[in-house]
Amino acid sequence: MGIITELFYLPSIEYFAAVQGNGIICLDDLERYQKQSLRNRTSILLANKTEKLSVPVYGGNKNQPYRDIRIDYEQKWLNVHLRGMQSAYGKAPFFEFYYPYLEQVYLKKLPFLIDMNQQLLTVCLKLLRWDTEVKYLSEFGEKSGLSDLRGVIKSKEHFTERDIYEARPYSQLFGVDFVPNLSIIDLLFCAGPEAEAIITASKKIE
């Protein structure tokens, strides 16, 4: 089984519920870049609020291929994101085990957004211990037989409007009320090896 998806930045738990069970995730590297989308932003939980992390890029107009989008390292986002993760999850049970794998990707300072996102996704899949092969649509060629998730998960639409993910609470570090569908790193840092079972439980019956 395989699925074609957009490539997001540290995707949400809903995304992983959608792709779970697929042996191949085929990333669309042929699409045009979309501003204000999940391709360069994600959400984590801080002490007082949910924080959106956004990766600044050069250009990014509609006509640019995603694969050509460069990350703007002149802005101080890198330290903001790394310190944000440390502040949000430094005391989480599995932070010290998982964070170094993510940090290694950031410290490479990869020039293109698509490469950073692909490597971060690959790390997350490995931390989940999923036997999933990540390919690009441009190299995969014939796509018959693959289900298509593109255009389904939208940043301006609440997850409850889609029939993919139903929140299953797990222990978070902050707040009384559970905050659903954050970046997968929230689940990984807080739940560790239990993350897969939580994703399975949160997946709506197809």
Q: What does the model show?
A:
Helix 2 runs antiparallel to helix 3 and helix 3 runs antiparallel to helix 4. A hairpin with a 4-residue loop joins strand 3 (41-45) and strand 4 (50-54). Helix content is 33%, strand content 12%. The model has no long low-confidence stretch (mean pLDDT 94). It has a four-stranded parallel sheet with strand order 5-2-1-6. Strands 3-4 form a two-stranded antiparallel ribbon. The chain has one domain. The longest helix is centred in the middle third of the chain and has 15 residues, at 113-127. The two termini are 15 Å apart. It is α/β, with parallel strands linked by helices and 206 residues long.
Summarize the helices and strands and which ones pair or pack:
Blueprint: E1 2-5, H1 13-19, E2 24-27, E3 41-45, E4 50-54, H2 77-89, H3 95-107, H4 113-127, E5 133-136, H5 137-140, E6 147-148, H6 184-191, H7 195-202
Parallel strand pairs: 1-2, 1-6, 2-5
Antiparallel strand pairs: 3-4
Helix pairs in contact: 2-3, 3-4
Structure, briefly:
The chain has 206 residues and is α/β, with parallel strands linked by helices. Helix content is 33%, strand content 12%. It contains 7 helices and 6 strands, in the order βαβββαααβαβαα.
Core attributes:
206 residues, alpha/beta, four-stranded parallel sheet, two-stranded antiparallel sheet, 7 helices, 6 strands, globular
Question: Which regions are unreliable across 5 or more consecutive residues at pLDDT < 50?
Answer: none
Question: How many β-strand runs?
Answer: 6
Strand coverage percent? 5-15%
Cα Rg: 16 Å
Largest sheet: 4 strands, parallel
Order of helices and strands: EHEEEHHHEHEHH
Mean pLDDT across residues: 94
